[in-house]
Amino acid sequence: MALNLRRYNGWIPSRKAYDAYFSDLVRGATTRSRALPTHTPPVKEFEQAIRADPAMVKLFDDVFLQAPELPSQIPDFDHFLHILDLIVGEPPKFKVVEEGGFSEPIGVPMYILFDLLSNTSAAYDLFRMKAFNQALKKLLLMRP
Question: InterPro entries under this entry (predicted)?
Fold first, then answer.
């Protein structure tokens, strides 16, 4: 299997690798949500911080309405949290795309998730909120 590192010295995955990895995340989150409905401690704390602020809850709801790619992939905040559960518990990976026979680094998996959210007006407002950034910082540091 070939390793393709030509795009930005290997830091940016191909669209096929990106889509395949994200599809795996969405499927994994669906399976996880049925088998284990509770969240990991860092994600649970993030959820509590978001749900404690009605403005952040509304903005997250709006993000899922405004992001054109999301409805079929991430239907709501709960599914988003299950995807976060998968990401915070694993190191970054290489994605092997079977049909193309190549493998590429994914980079920062959480970036892929937030990248989908960021191109909305609701995310613009959400990402500028101090409370959201504090909750995200705790999630990234994985400590209270």
Answer: PsiD-like (IPR022237)
